[in-house]
Amino acid sequence: MTDLKQTSLIRTMRPIHLMTALAMYLVGAGLARYLGARMDLSALGLGLSWLLCLLLGAFLLGDYFKISFETPVLPAKYTVPPSEDQKESPQSNLRLFGALALFSSAGVLTILMELRGGITPAVGMVLLACFSFTTLVVAPGLKLKYSGIGEFVISICLVIFPPALSFYMLYGEFHHFLSLGISPFFPLHLALILTLRLRSYPEDCRADRKTLMVRLGWVRGIFLHNLLVLSAFLLFGAAMLFGLPQRIVGPVFLTLLPAGVLIRIYSGLEHGTPVRWPLIIFLALVVFFLPLYLIAFTAWVF
């Protein structure tokens, strides 16, 4: 029972998706630092706390309404389907109260940021957009996640808004380094989501969940995944051509090898190659997180 509770807690927190938001937040701060912005650690801490409260609240609220913000990376064989009694259990009510508490904490943090003078028009727009997009994903009745655009909205929430928030809080205004540095991660993250959708493809078809992978079909979904991975590295190359320093973006091309292996594995699935999910999930995480780590590291060190 203890193991099941720990597994349920890990799935609720979705550490991979929280790590994505945290790493992208650090990328935005690193780019601002590289451009000479003063490092205001208290402002960064408030912004990060606000972001984590919002995401954790959305995770809990989505689980309460049975509209998960995003599929956990934890393998499905460790999941336990809830019984009818568990659906209205005190644990379910705790999710709702926890979500309300986290959203309230985010509201308090917003007031603190305003009192410090940290909410400029740009920061305010990012805060509002991040809150709106995140809550729309888990809003009951909308079913945005299964509309065919839910994957795009989720990637925007986890990949675009966090670095924009930290960058604007430190630098104060737009700079083309921000768009050049984070835009390649959007197709990479979307490719990661497609991998999760492919793993749950049979279940989604049986439950008539109209995810992007179900709408495309798994063959075209795999083709789109490979296209997204290749386009991300083309965007990294374009970023160097448009001025992003090579010492920041250059190391990400070390990820071409695992990316090529993943594309080769996916291409073989069409010809009946056995599916090795542990290897596929591992490579998908490496292809996304290794460039993310390298960009964050170089932006903070150089």
List the SSEs and their pairings.
Layout: H1 2-13, H2 15-34, H3 41-64, H4 84-87, H5 90-115, H6 121-138, H7 150-171, H8 176-182, H9 185-199, H10 201-206, H11 212-216, H12 218-241, H13 246-249, H14 256-269, H15 277-301
Helix pairs in contact: 2-3, 2-7, 2-8, 2-15, 3-5, 3-6, 3-7, 6-7, 7-9, 9-12, 9-15, 12-14, 14-15
Structure summary:
This protein has 302 residues and is mostly helical. 75% of the residues lie in helices and 0% in strands.
**Whole-Å distance between the termini?**
48 Å
**Number of structurally distinct domains:** 2
Q: What is the overall number of helices?
A: 15
Question: Helicity, in percent?
Answer: over 70%
How many beta-strand runs? 0
Mean pLDDT: 88
Can you write the helix and strand succession as a string? HHHHHHHHHHHHHHH
Structural class: mainly alpha
